[in-house]
Amino acid sequence: MLTDDVHEAVKALIMDHAIAPGERVSIDGLARQLGVSPTPVREALARLETAELVVKEPLRGYRTTPLLNREQLADLYRFRLLIEPWAAARAAEKADERGRGRLRAEMAACDAPHEATYDAYKALTAHDTRFHVLVAELAGSAQVRLAFERTHCHLHIFRLYYDSGIGRRTLEEHRAITDAVLAGDPGAAEAAMRTHLETAYYERLRPVSEASGAEPT
């Protein structure tokens, strides 16, 4: 297996909870499971540490990070609701024809997944990141783009919750944002982004987080 293949294989095990949240990760065990040497597994875990899916503990090796608890999830969405509706409005004001073309192309590049697995959802997680980063770029704000990327929220959110309907609903909400940006309507773009984030949090994610009983750590 190539290094990128090993990275994707280990990532899928974490996202699908085959390696449970908070569980210690055995480099040698993963190497045997994947039929590779320990070196690409170590490289994969180093990349996954950057994405905050694993954490390296001194003298103890790697452990998968816990799922977002209720307070962490609330903090993430408070942060996103502060910056992303503003970014959508600015994108509607500032996007030129090239930028609008990039947005159309992004929306045409992703279909809704039909299974509740990471393999089915990884295209959507990649689209989710590209879409929100692109809106920040069209807003002309490098700081908003960097702030969004640093949260790795797309991975943490999809790791918390897979559902066969979430892909379709997410894409519908992205299309509403896109339509408002393409129409050059800042108010509608801001409202569509706010609706997208509030729907994701209040209707899809917070109930799952509360049902899990995860307490702040």
Textual characterization of the structure:
- This protein is mainly alpha-helical.
- It folds into two domains: 3-64, Arc Repressor Mutant, subunit A (Orthogonal Bundle), CATH 1.10.10.10; 70-212, Four Helix Bundle (Hemerythrin (Met), subunit A) (Up-down Bundle).
- Helices cover 71% and strands 5% of the residues.
- The chain is built from ten helices and three strands.
- It has helices at residues 3-15, 27-34, 38-50, 70-94, 97-108, 118-138, 142-151, 153-160, 166-182, 186-212, and strands at 24-25, 54-57, 61-64.
- The protein has a three-stranded antiparallel β-sheet with strand order 1-3-2.
- Strand 2 (54-57) and strand 3 (61-64) form a beta hairpin.
Task: Provide a concise account of the structure shown.
This protein is mainly alpha-helical and 217 residues long.
Percentage of helical residues?
over 70%
Strand content: under 5%
Q: Widest sheet: strand order?
A: 1-3-2
Number of DSSP strands?
3
The N- and C-terminal alpha carbons lie at a distance of 37 Å
CATH homology superfamily name of the largest domain: GntR ligand-binding domain-like
* Discrete helix count: 10
GO molecular function, one term: DNA-binding transcription factor activity
Organism: Streptomyces abyssalis
Domain HTH gntR-type: 1-67
Pfam families: FCD (PF07729), GntR (PF00392)
